[in-house]
Design goal:
This protein is α/β, with parallel strands linked by helices. The protein has one domain: Glutaredoxin, CATH 3.40.30.10. The protein has six helices and seven strands; from the N terminus they run αββαβαβαβαββα. It has a five-stranded mixed sheet with strand order 5-4-3-6-7, with helices on both faces. A two-stranded antiparallel sheet has the order 1-2. The longest helix has 21 residues. It is globular, with a radius of gyration of 18 Å. The N and C termini lie far apart (45 Å).
């Protein structure tokens, strides 16, 4: 009797797993390598059902101080379900070739606690699939470092913002709050 109950429980659990995986939005159906780690970030596992700000970053850019504002945004809204994903990119020739230096800028210089990935291409046909999806939904690929895409809990781009829009800009805050409500 116990064996059949265990088998039934296992069968039910296995039947549910594909249904949960099928719910993952296309935007999040990817993995990226974490910064200074051998681990990979499964975007579905980490961000499904959460609002998300995705930003392409660079360590040697005039907009690099935005890390401080992005961290503040994350701290302000993380308990409401906001995540921030930083994706370093050298597409604009302002990211270090040394991953340790990139990590130092993020973690030591700016105190970043949100998820950061290893350097990835973010525009053109070489763009990582996440950024191809973001560009398709938003109708715009990043034109420079620190482009910010706000994604709702269903994996849909709510809005995007240029490098010049700071993380504490009321328009970006409004988009984050909208994404958190959906």
């Amino acid at each position: 009797m116990k064996a059949s109950a265990c088998a039934m429980t296992l069968w039910l659990a296995l039947a549910v797993i594909p249904a949960v995986a099928a719910e993952c939005p296309a935007l999040l159906d990817h993995e990226l390598p974490k910064l200074r780690s051998t681990e990979r970030v499964d975007l579905c596992e980490a961000f499904q059902g959460k609002a998300l700000v995705v930003v392409n970053t660079a360590s040697h850019c005039g907009f690099t101080p935005q890390f401080k504002g992005l961290e503040a945004l994350y701290q302000r809204y993380k308990d409401e379900g906001l995540e921030v994903l930083g994706v370093p990119s050298d597409d604009f020739f302002q990211e270090s070739d040394d991953e340790a230096e990139t990590a130092e800028v993020c973690y030591v210089n700016y105190g970043v606690t949100f998820t950061m990935t290893q350097t990835q291409p973010v525009r053109g046909h070489d763009a990582t699939p996440l950024f191809r999806e973001l560009a398709e939904q938003a109708g715009r690929a990043p034109l420079w470092n620190f482009y910010k895409y706000v994604v709702d809990r269903n994996g849909q781009v709510v809005d995007y913002f240029s490098s010049k829009v700071k993380p504490d800009d009321p328009r970006l805050i409004a988009a984050v709050e909208k994404a958190l409500q959906q």
